[in-house]
Design brief:
Layout lengths: L6 H4 L9 H6 L20 H10 L2 H5 L2 H14 L5 E2 L6 H8 L1 E3 L5 E3 L6 H5 L10 H14 L10 E6 L1 H10 L7 H9 L1 H25 L3 E6 L9 H16 L3 E2 L2 E2 L2 E5 L6 H5 L5 E3 L6 H8 L4 E6 L8 H15 L12 E5 L9 H17 L3
Helix pairs in contact: 3-5, 5-8, 9-10, 9-11, 10-11, 11-12, 15-16
Length: 377
């Protein structure tokens, strides 16, 4: 635990060799800016590809707790990352609702039974969490693997889910989409049906995340990957309202420790203040946002996470270092004028590309740690 941990903060942060991520999420002092990457366990790593080949398929990998643990730890063994994130998929919840999730080789996710009419909507139910036991078993397995003989973890473990709106996009479209025609048609023509889907999704996501927390997740994140495709007004009514419904049900503490809540809306910069007002602890930002302006707007209210363009990782190591420093400099020194702390968790503005050279990630992580130390008081 950080040497600057006080008695008060010790009650809210679990015992960890590296607690910087949790401290930043809760806007406590940190020794440096912590960094983790969305999709940090993924196809850019040769060791991940080898494990996935052993598993036989993506779902074979995600539903085997030991293998999910193995790939969760792979980036931590390679890089000095400050948090682990559960290896899973955002679509496990609708799969447990009976929609029949599959991943064809070279293609995105597909649902055998998309939700496109009134009968399908009325049939939706919050799934029995026993159907997702493999996820919670993976959480427990990862926590044990991260812990030493005294039960002290290396780094915190993040659990996650898709947002109610993002899940609805896949559920209605039957997979990914370029124009969201089917889900938006339902939203505009039959808003009553869309609200029914979103209500079930929100309650399912809340129960799913709470069960992850009970299994050992030490922070949770809601991925609103497709919130940014909504028009202003529709975002508030069909996106944010149901993310807020999730957050209102989430555990804020477990076993005496504070559980930070993170919300990431890709393309959501227009609604930064409204997202911060949901009661989350951390707002994730994509690369279109200026961190200095975002901090000036909400920095005393929430921590910020982000926001390097993932494509920067295809530049030279020297250029990656310069861009990482620019992000850190944009956020600025972590202490506010009133002496409080404005937490910053360094991340990409979206998931890491599968084509990223692994050695370039080292340049990023090492630069974030080194340069952020120079910005401390």
């Amino acid at each position: 635990m950080s040497a600057s941990t006080s008695t008060q903060t010790a009650l809210s942060i679990p015992p960890l060799q590296n607690d910087q991520f949790l401290r930043a999420c809760l806007r406590m002092p940190t020794d440096f800016t912590p960094v983790w990457l969305m999709r940090q366990a993924g196809r850019y790593l040769p060791e991940y590809r080898a494990t996935r080949e052993r598993a036989g398929s993506f779902m074979g990998l995600a539903t085997a707790p030991d293998l999910a643990c193995e790939v969760t730890l792979q980036p931590l063994d390679r890089y000095a990352l400050d948090a682990a994130i559960l290896f899973s998929d955002i679509l496990t919840v609708p799969d447990a609702m009976g929609l029949g999730l599959s991943f064809a080789t070279g293609e995105g996710p597909k649902f055998a039974s998309p939700v496109r009419d009134e009968a399908a909507v009325k049939a939706l139910r919050v799934p029995d969490m026993n159907q997702l036991k493999y996820v919670f078993d993976a959480v427990g397995t990862i926590r044990r693997a991260l812990s030493d003989a005294k039960g002290v973890g290396r780094v915190p473990l993040i659990g996650f889910s898709g947002s109610p709106w993002t899940l609805a996009c896949y559920m209605v479209e039957g997979g990914g989409s370029d124009d969201y025609r089917l889900v938006k048609t339902m939203m505009y023509q039959r808003p009553d049906l869309m609200h029914q889907i979103l209500a079930v999704n929100a309650d399912a996501v809340a129960l799913y995340l709470n069960t992850q927390i009970e299994a050992g997740a030490q922070a949770v994140m809601v991925f609103d990957s497709w919130g940014g495709v909504l028009a202003d007004g529709a975002f508030q009514n069909f996106g944010l309202a149901y993310t807020r419904r999730v957050l209102s049900q989430l555990k804020k503490t477990h076993n005496g420790h504070r559980i930070p809540h993170i919300v990431f809306t890709k393309g959501g910069g227009l609604w930064l203040q409204e997202i911060a007002d949901t009661g989350c602890d951390v707002v994730g930002l994509d690369w279109t946002m200026n961190l200095d302006k975002a901090r000036a707007q909400v920095g005393h209210q929430v921590a910020l996470q982000g926001n390097l363009d993932p494509m920067v990782l295809f530049a030279s190591p020297e250029q990656i270092q310069a861009q990482a420093k620019a992000v850190l400099d944009s956020f600025g020194r972590p202490r506010n004028a009133d002496g409080s702390h404005a937490g910053h968790v360094f991340n990409l503005g979206h998931g890491i590309s599968q084509f990223t050279p692994p050695e370039h990630v080292s340049a990023l992580v090492d630069t974030v740690h080194a340069h952020s130390r120079t910005l401390r008081d």
